Sequence to fold (189 residues):
Amino acid sequence: MDVMEAIYHRRAVRRFTAAPVNAEALRSLIESAIQAPSAINLQPWRFAVALRRETLQRIAGAARDHLLSHMQPGSPFLRFRSMLVDPACDILHGAPALVVICATEAEQQAAEDCALAAQNLMLTAHARGLGTCCIGLARPWLNQPEGRRLLGIPAESVAIIPIIVGEPAETPPAPGRRTPHIDWIDGTD
Fold:
């Protein structure tokens, strides 16, 4: 698939078929992820992968409950409260796989490097017919001791980008994009 086609047609998928994603396919996505650039070539990432339905349901429920019990006034998550209070709410959208990209360095650029790796993973998944979606709602719980233990995330690492992966049941339409604001510093308009 042409890279421009992947960039312009990849979507956040939140409905998946029941088809499993095999470990070899996920390993291939991770191999693409680590081709991302990283500051001074630190490659400050590690990956935690969950495939078992029971584990994914446990993560979804625990992450939802954690958000509800720790939501502060003014939190950007408040807009999701009405969805989260529903016990049937699955913040992982029934996806058959979860890949959590973790930063292994405390340096600021480590999170940025993980974001670059995430983009590579998501574009590669799209090119291979798989759907993905970043699930920021899961991140707070994944960085709690219980979440870390469940996914084997060491204390010195930080969960940065949880990404669900699976065969899309549907592909949503493209959202509109605002015209970018560009400040030309050399006088070009």
